[in-house]
Specification:
Helix content: 25-40%
Oligomer: single chain
Number of strands: 11
Shape: globular
Protein name: Rhodanese domain-containing protein
Strand content: 5-15%
Number of helices: 8
Largest sheet: 5 strands, parallel
Radius of gyration: 18 Å
Order of helices and strands: EEHEHEHEEEHEHEHEHEH
Organism: Volvox reticuliferus
Distance between the termini: 51 Å
Strand order of the largest sheet: 3-10-9-4-6
Amino acid sequence: KMLVARPGSIVPSRSRSARRPARSTVVVQAELPRWPLVFKALTDAKVETISPQEAKARIDSGAWILADVRLKEQHEAGHPEGAVSVPIYETINLAGADVRKMLKAFMYKSNGVNPVDPNPAFAEQMKAAVRAAEAETKVPVQGVITCCEAGGTLKPSINFPEGKPSRSLQAAYRIMAERLAPKVAHLERGVFGWYQADLPIEGDYTPDIGRTPMAAAEPTLQRLNQERGYEMRPEDKPVESSKKLWPW
């Protein structure tokens, strides 16, 4: 029988030759499944959400790496000490862009959001980060901790029965589904939580608070919009108005 995959689904690949053993590779479409499916997969697998302090301890051990999955330009502006940049999205470059990308960029800009597309090299860059860490430390990487700006959450609540989506949770799903690392964990409150915990930061990090774009029907834009809901706590240090990395 022919196996037909729905858009965004994950299906096992089949060997073309009956004489060769089946391989355990998976094929992942460019667009992720909708958030409820991602949420269920992560919660069923009991993916950990760890505090910034626990994340730093694991990184310092040399057995875990911290993957900053924000945009490359966000990472370059400021990031947790020791984090490696593996963006799950990339800014759309209008120079030489096709019609689809130009229309997408226009829609994003009209909603006050930096125009992005999924990073087609995400999987290879993540595997390269794992290999580089092992080459440097001579210690096998046990797992990857993903972080983005605000972190999102897998904790259900009355208002958010399926948690809150985020880029770091999307990245955690891909790492798990595509077997890009032995284990994966998710940084609580993201880079913002690391900043609030007064842990070392390289560069000039400023929380991206204060930009709440209008809602839009495009699924990726919805997910990026939802991520801007920071979890604020009474003990948090004051945060000034955010500075923008882009001119719109």
